[in-house]
Amino acid sequence: MYAGIFGQDIKGYLPYLSTGFTVWVPLSTYLTECSTAFTAVEATVKQVRLPYMTFIFSGMVRNVIVFGHHVIIYLVVIAVVGMELSENMLYALPAMLAFVLNGVWAGATIAIVCARFRDMQQVVVNMLVIMFFITPILWPANTVRGRMQATLVDMNIFHHFIDILRAPMLGMAPDLESWYVVGATTVFGWAFLIWLYARTRNRIIFWL
Amino acid sequence: MPIIDVRNVSMNIPVYGMHSRSFRQVLFRRHTGGAILEDGTIFVKALVDVSFSAEKGERVALIGHNGAGKTTMLRLLAGVYAPTSGEVAVQGRISALLNIGLGMDLEANGYENIMHVGLMLRMTADEIKSKMDEIAEFTELGDYLNLPVRTYSSGMQLRLSFAIVTSIKPEVLLLDEGFGTGDARFTTRAQKRVNVLIESSHALVLATHSEDLAKQFCNRGLLLNEGCAVAFGPINEVFETYRELVAREGRSAAAPFEK
Q: Pick from A44, A117, A120: which is nearest to B102 by CB?
């Protein structure tokens, strides 16, 4: 039905949609879980000294496994529509690494902020819902081409992240511009987390 | 080299009221320039310049009223808190039995939780596997261990987590008196198990109000009052100081009524 709304060919739209979901669902689940990552383990961290990053990594591993399960649906879809394999698909590997690297700083930042300010958890959840609708997942990015909304898409970090993984999964080369955005985000994100974690690591316990 | 070495430790604990827990409220406060609502971070001076040490084989009782700083000291020794100033050094493997509700995964079954909680307590996977039968037996939960923990009664959950946390053989044991344990029959068995743990550990720190308990297990005492170390030494002497302190406070508390 959405293929009709966006004037897309079902053969192109179905793989687009399923890869988009394959990437988005574990990503948003992970970030949502991070918002309660520290508050949920209060009893444990008040008794045992454990690095806080343990809980971020466990959420990460859990959602990488979820991603693995979603990949099965993706494989079924590309088999059904008869997509040809392409060497561009290898670009998915560095993209996954970028997801993991950025997931750590983003997840840890969310966990720290949500432990300090309890109302931020709702904010995170709602932001993710908004991002789902304004990021090209249900609809292809080219439907807004040439319009004002295209600027919004270009400024959307989530779009660039999803694109570097979705494009190779669809057999296309990823946009170089998206990789630049992802690279810059990785550097700034980690610098920010190191600053934040150094400032807060001894205080998180009092916020729980 | 003492096993536990606490030097000039002070601990300030910030108290976050509901107003400072909310990002919206903090943001609002910044915008009003802080003139009306001053930055309201309140600190509790939980410990003030406390020093003590314990050699191998010494068993220290932390004595004092509620809020004297006993639990804070245990958490400092466990490494949960970082001291505001001063140094805390503990040699060897620590096990803290402070509260029993240690993060269990309610969807996982009993055996999986033994592994899960065990790993969080920093046991190795092999170590847990070798203790699995012994832990399972102690819980007396039988086939329930194959069911998800969410189907357990609270008493059963308590048994399971107690069995796991007491399965570690620590070098340094930190024990809070309030470390509770289910029904009467289980309590007797639990008590025995804790006694065995205490005897096998190299050093013990026990927070308690009970003179009997302290004298049964400890040979040294540290008396805390409002975060300050009032006395540290042989257990009998420290309890005498404690009784004097209680008596003195009793008099001053009773004083208004005497007039």
A: A44
Instruction: Tell me the C-alpha distance between A36 and A47, whole Å.
Output: 18
Label the pairing between strands B203-208 and B172-176: parallel
Tokens for A69, please give them.
């399960």
List the beta strands (DSSP E) in B102-197: 172-176
Please list every residue in chain A whose beta carbon sits closer than 8 Å to the beta carbon of residue B82: 202
ipTM confidence score: 0.71
Given an 8 Å threshold on Cβ–Cβ distance, is A47 in contact with B79?
Answer: no
Residue B45's identity, in one-letter code, is K
Tell me the two tokens of residue B205. Answer: 């720190």
Q: Which residues of A touch B (CB under 8 A)?
A: 40-41, 43-50, 113, 116-120, 123, 202-203, 205-207
H helical segments located in B14-124: 18-21, 23-31, 70-78, 110-120
Q: What was the pLDDT predicted at B180?
A: 54
Q: What's the angle, vertex CA B107, arms to CA B104 and CA B111, rounded to 5?
A: 65
Minimum-distance CB partner of A43 among B75, B82, B102: B102
pLDDT tens digits for range A11-69 = 778 888 889 989 999 999 999 999 988 888 887 888 888 888 989 999 999 999 999 99
SS3 sequence of B72-98: HHHHHHHCCCCCCEEEEEECCCEEEEC
Q: Which CATH superfamily is domain B4-12+46-92+210-258 in?
A: P-loop containing nucleotide triphosphate hydrolases (3.40.50.300)
Q: A interface mutation test: which of B13, B15, B80, B99 has the most A CBs within 10 A?
A: B80
Nearest by Cα to B201 from B117, B41, B47, B90: B90
Q: How far is CA A45 from CA A82, B59, B92, in A?
A: 50, 25, 19
CA dihedral (A76, A79, A84, A85) positive or negative: positive
Alpha helices in chain A (DSSP H): 2-5, 10-34, 42-45, 53-81, 92-116, 120-134, 149-155, 157-169, 176-200, 204-207
Q: Cβ distance A165 to A28 under 8 Å?
A: no
Where do the structural domains in chain B lie, given as residue ranges? 4-12+46-92+210-258, 110-201
Instruction: List chain B residues with pLDDT less than 50.
Output: 32-38, 181-182, 256-259
Dist CA B130 CA B166 (whole Å): 15
- CA distance linking residue A196 with residue A99, whole number of Å: 20
